[in-house]
TrEMBL record:
Source organism, top-level taxon: Bacteria
Any one Gene Ontology cellular component term annotated for this protein: membrane
InterPro entries cross-referenced by the UniProt entry: EGY1-like, Peptidase_M50
Localization terms from the record: Membrane
Protein name per its UniProtKB record: Metalloprotease
Keywords in alphabetical order: Hydrolase, Membrane, Metalloprotease, Protease, Transit peptide, Transmembrane, Transmembrane helix
Organism of provenance: Thermodesulfovibrio yellowstonii (strain ATCC 51303 / DSM 11347 / YP87)
Residue stretches making up the Peptidase M50 domain: 43-203
């Protein structure tokens, strides 16, 4: 019972914190009007669906390969999105390269698809407004994919104007950003699992090269990458060996691995936030 209770409590808490974040994004003062909390539901439902889809992708892939895994643990937080994400914990080793590809890639691919849907729906509800500069201006960076989505959904944005994202589109943007961060081919991130399954011992060099790249981005673009690089060093940049090293991965698994890194390139945002 305990294995269900804690994930359920955290899930419910995160629903409330994401509702709170969604309401604040709409300019609602919840300290004066707490009953309007429910108005944050477009963002809350969107971000929770994306995160849950990502983690359940990992969970069901783990089950399919008889790897023990916990249910998703959501992390409620007093942040602009109301959460620090979610994770599942592996309780037994991943045995094969095929399992490593499936478990590593399924979560990001599911999260990517859900984020893509949220972006398209949310952009159709977004507004184009005059661009004003001020001390409290907060802007989001664009990945290759998000730029294309804006162009095909809203057309060319005139000079001096910008897009005011609907909260559903913002949730989709966050989903794409989280997907790219998870697909970094470093350590035991999802991208690290995939890189190890595809390239074996070359993971050692790929992981360290990418870590250096992220640290450099932190120096020249966005300081948050430095924090992420330090966290990755703390978590470890190496990958534990697997028990069964198949001589050759199937073509379908190699395609999934390559597709995952294409998604990474399309969703990666060098400067995610501009203040």
């Amino acid at each position: 019972m305990k294995k269900y209770l804690i994930p359920l409590i955290l899930f419910i808490m995160t629903i409330f914190t994401t509702l709170f974040a969604g309401a604040l994004q709409q300019g609602i003062n919840l300290f004066k009007e707490p009953m309007r909390l429910w108005e944050g539901y477009p963002f809350s439902i969107s971000i929770m669906t994306i995160l849950l889809g990502h983690e359940m992708g990992h969970y069901f892939a783990s089950k399919a390969h008889r790897t023990k895994a916990t249910l998703p643990y959501f992390i409620p937080a007093p942040s602009i999105i109301g959460t620090f994400g979610a994770f599942i914990k592996m309780k037994s080793p991943i045995l094969t390269r095929k399992a490593l590809i499936d478990i590593g890639a399924t979560g990001p691919i599911v999260g990517f698809i859900l984020s893509l849907i949220a972006c398209i729906i949310g952009l159709k509800m977004s507004k184009i407004i005059p661009l004003t500069y001020g001390e409290d201006m907060f802007m989001l960076g664009d990945s290759i994919l998000f730029s294309l989505l804006v162009k095909f959904t809203l057309g060319n944005i005139p000079a001096g104007q910008d897009v005011l994202l609907h909260s559903v589109a913002f949730a989709g943007w966050i989903g794409l950003f989280v997907t790219s961060m998870n697909l970094l081919p470093v350590g035991q991130l999802d991208g690290g699992h995939i890189a190890y399954a595809l390239f074996g011992k070359w993971h050692f060099y790929i992981s360290r090269t990418m870590l250096f790249f992220i640290a450099a981005l932190g120096v020249f673009y966005w300081y948050g990458w430095l924090v992420w690089a330090l966290l990755l060093v703390f978590l470890g940049v190496d990958h534990p060996p697997i028990l069964v090293w198949e001589s050759r991965l199937s073509l379908s698994r190699r395609i999934v691995g390559i597709l995952s890194f294409i998604i990474f390139l399309l969703t990666f945002t060098p400067t995610p936030f501009n203040f």
